[in-house]
Design a protein that fits this description.
mainly beta, 1 helix
């Protein structure tokens, strides 16, 4: 695993309340995004999800997917903490399907 982006910036997309990118982790051919919700009842929650490209007509778009493997999810959370993406104390929510 390696951190490929630790910049903070707003995430685009209508499917989530306003969210902020905290980091992107690459593991082999897969990429995972760490993000924090900035508003609403989920404000402050931090999530880690897999990024997958989807072809929409002639354009590529990225969708986020729940991580099914609990061991992988914990490994990603620990890696994010060890590499400064996550605060060592903050609780991470794993979004349910």
């Amino acid at each position: 695993m390696k951190v490929i982006n630790s910049n903070k910036f707003p995430l685009p997309g209508p499917n989530y309340p306003r969210a902020e990118h905290l980091g992107t982790i690459k593991d082999g051919l897969r990429e995972y995004v760490v993000f924090q919700i900035l508003e609403g009842k989920m404000k402050g929650n931090v999530y880690i999800e897999e990024i997958r490209g989807v072809l929409l007509g002639n354009n590529m778009a990225a969708n986020l997917f729940f991580i099914e493997d609990d061991n992988l999810a914990m490994e990603l959370e620990n890696f994010a903490r060890e590499n400064g993406i996550l605060n060592p104390i903050r609780q991470v929510e794993m979004r349910k399907k």
